[in-house]
Amino acid sequence: MIPEDKTPIAPPSRRFIAGAVCPRCSAMDTIVVDRDTDLRECVACGFSDPRPKDKAPAPAEPGTRVSRAAARRVETAAEAVRILEPAPKRGK
Questions:
Q1: 30-65 residues labelled b (16+ CB within 10 A) or e (exposed)
Q2: In this structure, are residues 41 and 22 in contact, taking their beta carbons and an 8 Å threshold?
Q3: For residue 68, how many other CB atoms are within 10 A of its CB?
Q4: Dihedral class, residue 44 (left if φ above 0, else alpha if ψ from -120 to 50, else beta)
Q5: How far apart are the first and last CA of the chain?
Q6: What is the pLDDT at residue 45?
Q7: Which of 11, 42, 67, 72: CA 20 to 30 A from 23?
Q8: Cα(35)–Cα(14) distance, rounded to whole angstroms?
């Protein structure tokens, strides 16, 4: 008699995407993505769609007053801040 193989089978490597809305049935929180195949699937209606293989280059970061090199070179003088207490209410 040959003993049965008791090796546990690994569950599929899928994860739910919080807040994702299915493009077909518009149900929220029903999209799962398979980590191995990058296939997204709706558990409510069966919609499936492969993730694109071509990754577009990341857009350049827009210039802000914090990220501009010129802004980092200018030292802004510190100023004291005065906190005012609200005036008491009159008449009540």
A1: bbbbbeeeeebbbeeeebeeeeeeeeeeeeeeeeee
A2: no
A3: 11
A4: alpha
A5: 94
A6: 93
A7: 11
A8: 6
Mean pLDDT of 10-27: 86
What six digits make up the tokens of 57? 């280059």
Q: What is the pLDDT of residues 48-60, one digit of tens each?
A: 988 767 667 777 7
Rounded CA-CA distance 32/12 in Å is 11
In this structure, are residues 40 and 15 in contact, taking their beta carbons and an 8 Å threshold?
no
- What are the E-state strand segments in the chain? 14-16, 31-34, 39-42, 48-50
Residue pair 40/29 in contact by the 8 Å Cβ criterion: no
Cα 28 from chain centroid? Answer: 15
The structure tokens listed for 11 are 């569950």
CA dihedral 64, 59, 50, 25 (to 10 degrees): 40
pLDDT exceeds cutoff 60 at 43 = yes
Q: What is the identity of the amino acid at 14?
A: R
Both tokens of residue 4?
């049965």
d(CA 24, CA 26): 6
